Amino acid sequence: MTNTMAHFKGKDPKKEVMSDLSHRHRxxxxxxxxxxxxxxxxxxxxxxxxxxIPIYKNFQRKKxxxxxxxxxxxxxxxxxxxxxxxxxxxxxxxxxxxxxxxxVARNMVNFFExxxxxxxxx
Length: 122
Prior knowledge:
Blueprint (H helix, E strand, L loop, with lengths): L3 H5 L4 H9 L9 H13 L1 H21 L4 H23 L5 H20 L5
Helix pairs in contact: 3-5, 3-6, 4-5, 5-6
């Protein structure tokens, strides 16, 4: 529902609504939402087999070749996280903010790096 008074004041109601929603992208991610989405990503078999395993194998190859970069790994992990976010939205009707998705991607890349350092492989 748009604010009709904004229209009378010479302001575009659509821009007013969008400016109210834009704060969601700048907030610090909620730790509960991060954990919820991360669990969903890790347990979503559609994404696990089609995205996570290939991504982890790619990271593993890059580590072995010496071309692995942390920030690029986070960017690559965002593909799996965004796919899971889309599935979550279809299942439950809720979409996570960009900051939450980025935090999940960072957590998952950190997990990969810890596992790789411990000698575990995919």
